[in-house]
Amino acid sequence: MEKHNIKSVVSMLAVAMGLAAANVWAAEAPLDVKMVERGRYLSVTSGCNDCHTPGYLASDGNVPEERWLSGDTLGWRGAWGTTYASNLRLFVKDMSEDEWVSVAKTLKRRPPMPWFNLNKMEENDLRALYQFTKSLGEPGMPAPAYVPPDQEPSTPYALFPSPPAPKVPQAPQAPAAFRVN
């Protein structure tokens, strides 16, 4: 009788573990090949790789795809401090596709990230970028952390000039013949 009970418990545990594993796999939807291709196209034409792929700009885009969107150690320094293009593979790693769309629609970041363009992307394009990013595989390491403006970064960086001071409009001057001294 005890053997039968142990066997039943083991069988029930095996079934429960199988169901739990199936639920984990079901939570991660399979990637759509057409969406992955669209995401690949968007990552190139929208400039995502320009900053988020190490060496992409300097090599005219000749970087193996397995390095794409893995973040960079090249800093972007300006009045805001020094920022680094994040590892987008890590950024979306634990997000669902719906979570990514929501985040991308409301994201705000320091320069030079054009977050305002990302906010305006169509939902289908955001989903394609998500699927492409997920298709790239192993996330890798995070990019360096933000460096405040009063600290010198320890990595190479591109320096942004400070924007010119806004011009203060001056009241127009009357021609000399009409001026009262």
Structure description:
This protein has a domain at 28-139 and 155-160: Cytochrome Bc1 Complex, Chain D, domain 2. It contains 7 helices and 3 strands; from the N terminus they run αααββααααβ. It has helices spanning 2-27, 33-45, 48-52, 88-93, 97-106, 115-120, 123-135; strands spanning 75-78, 81-84, 157-159. It has a 3-stranded mixed β-sheet, with no helix packed on it. The termini are far apart. Mean pLDDT is 86; it is low at 8-27.
- Quote the distance from N terminus to C terminus: 116 Å
Mean pLDDT score, rounded? 86
Any idea what the radius of gyration is? 26 Å
Instruction: Using the coordinates above, name the CATH class of one domain.
Output: Mainly Alpha
Strand order of the biggest β-sheet: 2-1-3
Beta percentage is: 5-15%
* CATH architecture term of one domain: Orthogonal Bundle
Low-confidence stretches: 8-27
Give the beta-strand count: 3
**If helices are DSSP runs of H or I spanning 4 or more residues, what is the number of helices?**
7
Overall 3D shape: globular
**Broad structural category:** mainly alpha
Order of helices and strands: HHHEEHHHHE
CATH topology heading of one domain: Cytochrome Bc1 Complex, Chain D, domain 2
Residues in helix, %: 40-55%
Largest sheet: 3 strands, mixed
